[in-house]
Structure to design on (1074 residues):
């Protein structure tokens, strides 16, 4: 990674710093972060004045942020402030003090800018074509309508979780009358956005602490098998059930609800009410969580600066490339296994009847199957599984990530099972994993020596036998031997015998068409650049 | 890594290839391996003649080995053969064919050489001062007596698992009369080694498939919480119980015993009988498994060639350094956290009453606490835990590895628990983990910015308060703030309040004495070399 940047996001409730190392346009990695709930907006009230004590503790924290940036040797600091500072009547005084006492120039984002950076974080990390991106912060609620991946409309409303709680909820647990008043206030505010009802459609993407917290509570209730929020979908029904339960509890008991952190327990009800009203008004039955947001949006702006756009061309291809780069995959081998596996998949459709979903899972898993070697050669299949499960992999659904992790786990041996993912994967998925693992395993052993000696494969299924003819450009007896030794899963899963034959091939190029893991755009330029960077390491 | 080597070990039962990437004397990593049970000795019988079919399939495999070496771009191949070839009357013919048909010069090891390389593998990966290293192969049993880490005596006996099984066991399940005959034969053979009874002492180290298989079966029976054989200790009583059970079962049911692979099930009884008789004769009540052996011994000879010795100076220090190198740890930070943590440990003895065992665990964990950052910054404590649990870490016991992994897991937050290690760690260990985690966490936050701004710590425990005075060489308010925020575990675990104070320090060097994770030799030269190599990467 060639550059480092620090991004500060000074919110009304929580303030955060992220430090990213990155190679522009190609790869990035979070290398440090700090998060503290300083509650800058505390006591602002209707007068909208930042109070001395919250200002003082915020400036102390900003000094800590600046020091951590310096200690990390960053090139650039982007420091931004949102709702609390934006609305403060004493904004100028505060900015001046921050400059003098913490050495930072704060950029105050407008509500529309805030919505727009949140949209950038979301659209670069989830496969969104159309929909609505919302960010319930401490002070405000930002909305961005997405059309064909572009930001079509934005709005910012004073419906932040802290603000609503401080203004309306005066009892613990809240009284019904307070909640009804709050409901009406939120409905009125949302009603002011005329485009909200008319044709929102698409996907609802939720950013920020309220959305993440609700997803965590939902996962805890469902004993969800993955420890992953980004890309998780929670239904309106579940959110309303959670809200109903939380409303009955005093703060001291809310703090003990699994998934709800104690520094969220006081403001969760206000934020959740705003969310449910919004879902009703805009007609969404579920919300997908985005773990990225404003800070990442600000980052993408820098990261993609030279490319003339603020949008990653293909979120999934980028995620795979980023991972390939971080773990220094053996690029020619990984790509060749990917090509052999997908080519067999395409030729054997009559045997598996799978479609684009499974093809993409197989293709992604093939590219990443060996990343675990970076941990240890022994059990590297298990390590690849762990790394895939714990990687960001933006743009892939939880189900796709679990399936890819399993394919990597079983790419050398073992009988595939989905038992670890009850509640996410089904018995039908076990069948998927078996068939796709059988293909991946065969591709892996047909490329045992990592020399691409078997350039391509022709498959012919006839009755109870599948014939594989490998076109070779050298001695492939090791690959032939290895594939034969490891054909059991294929034979058992497809109920076919397997006969492998090699054919020496004249010197012409046999590489088949490139395989796009995502399929939406041409990812070849990105692949080439990543390969080049890995080789330079 | 600057070099690559392929090591071939052509045994009587199984043949193996390992490919290592390495930087001489500093670090190495297994990058590929192949293992196949070709059973070269099949049908040799009393005439000691290698038969055509086993020879042919062995030569085919050796060709595969050579091709894999070439595909990996290795610099050197070391190809060795043991008992079957050593004893064969048609050895010359076989060597000649291997040279012509597989392009490999096989080096035939004498029994003493075999024992000696096995000893090298063991003594470089386990902390052995005195004891006996045994390797039950397919054809022969090698013994090496270790005195002060040196090889004092060797012997080689024709007591390999395949040989004993083929010669004595003619029924399935075996008949008592066969087993009694076998017992007597083994006793007679062992009786020929006069030094075996007199003062073996120390540790019994078991290499090879028979020893590993028995450990696997024992772990399966005990529901052992770690998936790790190297360094595992199994008692003679357990081995005899396992043997007793296996003797009753026909092959078809032995194959289904958890931990026993189907290609071991036929020869396990012969090998286990040899082992139990040896343990009785030499007076050992338990055996520690070594996952390294002949191949690694051959590797160490090359790896340490320039250092004028075939022994790694300090097995534990080497293991830590190797890991630090592989995961590019931030050396100044890791070493400084190590120094602060161990310094507090030493000063607060009155509070914890721990000794050298805990000090070494704390020290090792402090060095490795951040290796998980290489996977992802979020949850990097969890990733460090995974990496430590799955790393080789030669020289550390399973208990130490589990404790170090837990310290890394809890170095930032969470309430330490040892629940995942039932059967290995006790409630007393939970107390250990809590206290040591409290110290590590404090050291980590006192070094929050990774700049070593707090150079040293003085601790004073008075009544219910512990005072920490940090000597600083700059603005350490971030560290002060971070340590304060994360002092809860310390306060709760030691039942003391904590008061942290900073004192600016004049320019003199305050770094305390270096901390040896192992303590046996001066590891500083190794540390410096690794640091240098990481910085060059």
């Amino acid at each position: 990674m060639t550059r480092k940047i620090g991004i500060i996001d000074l919110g009304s409730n929580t303030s955060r710093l992220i430090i990213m190392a990155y190679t522009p346009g190609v790869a990035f990695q979070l290398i440090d972060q700090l998060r503290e709930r300083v509650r800058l907006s505390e006591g602002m009230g209707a007068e909208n004045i930042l109070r001395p004590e919250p200002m003082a503790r915020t400036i102390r924290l900003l000094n800590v942020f600046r020091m951590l940036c310096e200690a990390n040797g960053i090139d650039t600091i982007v420091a931004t402030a949102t709702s609390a500072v934006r609305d403060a009547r004493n904004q100028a005084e505060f900015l001046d003090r921050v400059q003098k006492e913490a050495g930072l120039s704060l950029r105050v984002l407008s509500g529309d800018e805030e919505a727009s950076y949140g949209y950038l974080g979301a659209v670069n990390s989830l496969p969104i074509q159309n929909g609505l991106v919302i960010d319930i912060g401490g002070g405000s609620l930002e909305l961005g309508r997405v059309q064909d991946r572009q930001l079509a409309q934005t709005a910012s409303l004073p419906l932040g979780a802290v603000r609503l709680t401080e203004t309306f909820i005066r009892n613990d647990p809240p009284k019904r009358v307070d909640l009804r008043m709050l409901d009406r206030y939120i409905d009125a505010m949302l009603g002011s956005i005329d485009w909200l009802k008319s044709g929102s459609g698409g996907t609802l993407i939720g950013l920020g602490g309220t959305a993440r917290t609700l997803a965590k509570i939902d996962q805890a209730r469902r004993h969800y098998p993955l420890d992953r929020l980004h890309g998780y979908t929670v239904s309106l029904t579940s959110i309303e059930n959670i809200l109903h339960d939380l409303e009955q509890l005093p703060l001291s008991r809310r703090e003990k609800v699994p998934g709800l952190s104690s520094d969220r327990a006081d403001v969760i009800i206000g934020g959740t009410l705003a969310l449910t009203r919004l879902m009703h008004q805009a007609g969404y039955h579920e919300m997908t969580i985005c773990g990225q947001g404003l800070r990442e949006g600000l980052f993408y702006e820098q990261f993609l600066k030279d490319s003339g756009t603020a949008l990653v061309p293909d979120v999934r291809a980028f995620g795979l490339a980023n991972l390939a780069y971080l773990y220094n995959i053996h690029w020619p081998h990984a790509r060749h296994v990917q090509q052999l596996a997908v080519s067999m998949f395409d030729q054997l459709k009559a045997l598996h009847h799978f479609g684009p979903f499974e093809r993409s899972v197989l293709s992604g898993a093939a590219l990443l199957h060996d990343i675990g070697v970076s941990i240890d050669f022994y059990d590297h299949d298990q390590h690849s599984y762990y790394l895939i499960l714990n990687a960001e992999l933006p743009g892939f659904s939880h189900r796709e990530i679990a399936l890819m992790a399993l394919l990597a786990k079983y790419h050398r041996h073992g009988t595939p099972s989905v038992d670890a993912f009850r509640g996410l994967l089904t018995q039908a998925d076990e069948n998927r994993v078996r068939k796709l693992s059988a293909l991946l395993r065969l591709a892996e052993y047909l490329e045992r020596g990592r020399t691409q000696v078997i350039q391509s494969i022709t498959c012919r299924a006839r009755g109870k036998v599948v014939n594989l003819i490998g076109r070779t450009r050298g001695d492939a007896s090791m690959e032939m031997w290895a594939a034969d030794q490891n054909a059991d899963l294929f034979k058992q899963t497809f109920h076919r015998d397997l006969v492998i034959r090699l054919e020496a091939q004249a010197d012409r190029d046999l590489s088949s068409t490139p395989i796009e893991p995502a399929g939406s755009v041409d990812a070849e330029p990105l692949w080439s650049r990543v390969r080049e960077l890995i080789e330079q390491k």
